[in-house]
Amino acid sequence: MSRCHALVWALLLLVAGLSATPAPAQHELTEEVRVKAAYLHKFPSFVEWPAAALPSDGAPIVIGIASADAIFRELERISKGRHVAGRLVEARRVDGIRGLAGLHVLFIGREMGSEASLYLKAAQALPILTVAEHEPIERLVILNFLDRGGTVRFSASLPAAEKAGLTLSSRLLAVADHVHGSPRDKK
Questions:
Q1: What is the CATH number of the domain that holds 100?
Q2: Are 87 and 140 in contact (CB under 8 A)?
């Protein structure tokens, strides 16, 4: 095919909108990233931290992201200049256990793999809302994202929240897919 014909086909595809439409898997990933970032931005509204964890009224809520670059970028985008629970939200990349200092929320992406348990063990005794997307470790984190037929949901662990010294709002628990440690939890 000549270069001219290729250019004509490219223009036709562009005009028809075919080249601008993402492939379904790419679109779903983008939607999943947006939804998870929005959840991470809103979760702090439904959590009560010990007074020492939020030392002053002007202190931001710091959300650390480990091994989830797309979610970090989206969270950073939607958090700019916005307040949650009366505080600015600051998104921060976490690269190593030392990065946990000063966090209020820690999200551990599935890309982290087996290292996730190291981060969770380090965060267990700290007032950090831990959030992950790992089915096998769902009882080790406070909130865990779940895929329910293409819909992003989450489970909650009351024992993990209690261990971190955090209180989860009943409004948050009401929309959770499952609440571990609740009277209705049969597991």
A1: 3.40.50.2300
A2: no
